[in-house]
Amino acid sequence: MGGTATGPASGVRTVAVIGGGTMGNGIAQVFAHNGRQVTLVDVDEGRLAAALGAIEKSLQRVARKGALAEGDIPGILARIRRSTRLDEAAQSQLVIEAVSENLEVKGRVFAALDQAAPAGTILASNTSSISITRLAAFTRRPDRVIGMHFMNPVPVMKLVEVIRGLDTSDATWGVIQALTAELGKLAVPANDSPGFVSNRVLMPMINEAVFCVHEGVATPADVDEIMKLGMAHPLGPLALADLIGLDVCLAILEVLQRDLGDDKYRPCPLLRKMVAAGHLGRKSGRGFHTYTG
After folding, report:
1. What is the pLDDT of residues 124-160, one digit of tens each?
2. 149 a catalytic residue
3. What domains sit in the chain, N to C, each tagged with a CATH number?
4. What pTM was computed for the model?
5. Kind of pairing between the strands at 159-164 and 145-150
6. Is 161 a catalytic residue?
């Protein structure tokens, strides 16, 4: 869905993604698969190499399912350029930040991008919970700052939760809405409130599932089995937390509790303990469940 000979309706041909983790490499893959030139930026060359390796494996899985010709993979990968320099990324028409869920870290990225990017560049964040208005305040272009919250795994999930800050312009929203459709995904708007819709609803459920284990109500396997069989969830809440990353879940809950001022979002002590121990879920090989490979 890369557009016609006159170009895509969104006008966006070049995209940069800041952060080569699970979300960042998934976002880069989707844009490259849909004909965009992508610059993938991370501070570490090793992480960039790992990200490209993950993208190649993901594309091979897509090809095995018949949704992509094996011969198209090299061309898709060739559209992704690696870089450790933010100033190179800033030359793209759209820059999507996908770094750790921390306001200070994201703020530094936005301030640096604002300094380096041309006036017309749109700056987007893949944040799961942090205010877009607060991120826009690190820039001199709040009208061109927007949230694009992709779901994990990015190549599979259709939803993009799109969040307008207080000053996000109609023109910026229109570009992102058109671009999301060109990616074969659906842009659903949410107001700029902590956790938006997806995580404001999801994280309390995950947190309550952790409390069930913490209080000895059931084992992680049984909590997940009950939710899958009884509520028709494709993945139990604890397995989903492992997929998201327990550190990410903790960070989102902390934002919800702090910014909404309600202790119903208080992270379970067991979640804090597991993150402190480095049991982060799939990415560490161990969370509420154990993973190999």
Report:
1. 999 999 999 999 999 999 999 999 999 999 999 999 9
2. yes
3. 14-190 (3.40.50.720), 200-283 (1.10.1040.10)
4. 0.91
5. antiparallel
6. yes
